[in-house]
Amino acid sequence: MRPMNMKNATSKTQLFQALIVAVTLLLAPAAFAAAPGITGTSAAGTSAAASFSLTAQDAYLNQPDGNAVYSWGYGCVSGSSPDFVPKATFAFPPLCNTMQVPGPTLVVTEGATVTINLTNNLPTAVGNTSILFPSFQLTSTCANSSANPQGLLACEVAPGQTITYTFVASAPGTHAYYSGTQGDLQIEMGLYGAIIVLPAKPPANCANGTSITNLYGKTDYGTKTGIPGFPEQDFRLSTAAYDHVKSCYDREYLFQWAEMDPRIHQEALAQVQAKIGCSAGMPGCSLDVQTEPYHPAYFLINGRSMPDLMDPNYAGEYPHQPYNGNPHIHPGELLLIRTIGQGRWQHPFHEHANHVRILARDGNLILSPTVPAQNLAGTLMFNTDTTPGDAFDGIFYFSGRGLNWDPYGHHPAGTGSAIAAEAITAISESGKTVTVTYSGSQAPAVGGNVTIAGVTPSGYNGTFTILSSTAGSTTSTFTYADPTSGLRAGSGGSATMSLPNSDSPPNDPLSSLTCTPDTNGYNTGNPAALNYYEWCQDHNKPVQVNPFGDVASGGPATLPDPNVLTNGQWYGGTPYLGPDASLRASMPACDTSLNANCTTLLPSNTQANPANERGWAFMWHSHNEREITTNNVFPGGMLMMLLVDSREFAIDESQ
Ligand SMILES: [Cu+2]
User: Can you give the pTM of this predicted structure?
Assistant: First the structure.
């Protein structure tokens, strides 16, 4: 946790803001995780009673511009030790602070009797608070006492007092909870959260390995091909979102959208501080914060803004904002998107890469009127608006179908050879045949490509086809036909080419896979195959381009200048072009007087990605441009990146 005074100091200049954003983007690890929450006193997966002890308190929320914004939120009462879910191991220990925004995600099972004890530990001048559970019928009655008076919308709890709400978790799905007291102020200040109700009887087909496409539980996955990280931990809360055969999912993420107007928060803080020590219910012991006009400057997903939301769940920098927003899937997997519109505004949530099939709204599964037991009827949406107080569940998947690019990054030659950049020790020309001698004891394949860079004169630099090659004990040679006339000899530089039998294992374990299309065009014959669910029409059309990838023949794409197109480490709106993009982004310094085409593109942009990661990044964001800024600085606000990685890359949701 950074000290507050430091944060405030750095917020003073735009320069520092920009720098902090840039540095944070560079350092942000690839972090991705599920829908973390707490289960109260009964375990998830049972319909037994679930009891939660919550408190409402104040604290400060960290924003990427350096601000620490005074806020109110629900949390776990001091000293309580709830059960955290999912049960898989997180990189940072799960934590339920006494105040967090959003409030703790309450995970219960359909049919459970849910008891929530809420203690009002907000500053006395704030007055009463409460919780509304808009999807459920309360079974508790209101005492209508001084401690628990009946309010306009909810039974409330006076300062320092506790109230108990009970209801039966009747409807599976994603639901909101939020303050039912002075909502224009209390929800704005952060008093909101989510309830996830898991189906009591998830359909059997959702666990049998045919309906699901993910790699969880496929114990031999990766071990056969020497790929670390498999089997992956299972971060799902269940195998199905509803008691319906078509509601299976492979991964799930919860996104709560809300905005903040810092002026309201400053006014609340000033009034709270001016009334410290006042007695509850006495004249003057209340707030009069103007909630109009409304000019939000912070646009939050799960209480954080870009880029903070890409940091891990429970990361120490955000003691009161434990949940991140960082979806991550393999091609073909079914991603359950749980979304709630909190706050006051509607937000145009746009999922790039594919449309989203709406599964349910506020826990109401949308079924076919003719065959409801088998078929769903939710619409396919380009943009899934979030509406205040409204939740939806949607199913998303990405196969790469129709892109004309292979998201698996296969090597067309099928050799699995390693790429090497070798130092050139001599270069000579006879006729138009160039002989290159380089350090190394391996010869590249004839017919493969080599890219020469840094040679003087620069006419030798470029990408050429190898005509012949000879391996030696310390140096080896190859030849190519020079399209430039008049050159005699050169010096310096390096040659980048594919070399067989490298000491390192083949860097592309997918290199010699076959793709056999089913009737829909996907490779689904063997669920254990590395390229299971590949769209076969694009097989062997890798995104990596020689010399930066391991594709000797080059690929269909040329990497854009990251200074032009990137948002920090991610390629904004364009496919992330694989691990070898890092090489280009971090090329050693070069002398443009010797080679006009050499570039030094620093700071590098993809270094944080694991070496074997190759996939695609897509912005998932608000389509309101203002909302992808933080205090008017881009990038920020409601912006996250969906990462689609090929199946050889083990997705670690532990962060
Ligand atoms: Cu968009």
Answer: 0.75
